[in-house]
Sequence to fold (157 residues):
Amino acid sequence: MKKQLIILFVSLFSECLAIWCYQCTAATPGCNEPFNWRGIGYLGNPCPDREDVCVKLIERKGAQEVITRDCLSNFKPFRTDIPADTYEGCRSAAKDVNLANYVNNTIKELDVKRDWYDETIWCFCFLDHRCNAASVVTNSFVVVTLSCIVVLIKILL
Fold:
């Protein structure tokens, strides 16, 4: 019986290793500043990649500000301006000099060169779940894990 409980606990723990991030855009109520997780209606989703980080992407054009919150792995397939350093903190977008070099496009609204916004800032975090809110205090994953281990040991003994 004890061996089965340990196997069950380990299997549940291995599935929880992905970080949870808020996933919303500026069109979602509560996603802009100040952030309101009640406005977006849920507590986020686990990221698909085990080595993922949470991202808060801020794009500014004059007084307009567009904020997108998501996992980094969801940006990688279509964004080429992700900074090389994705450690904790905020950085300006990387310049992709080869972007749209061979495109002959006369429709300026498509923004194939990604130069519409005056400023693009990438903010990365991975030390706590749902950290791309930057205004919500959450419990540390380590504290929750240690608490579960202590309760499991007391049950088994």
Q: What stands out?
A: DSSP finds four helices and six strands in the chain.
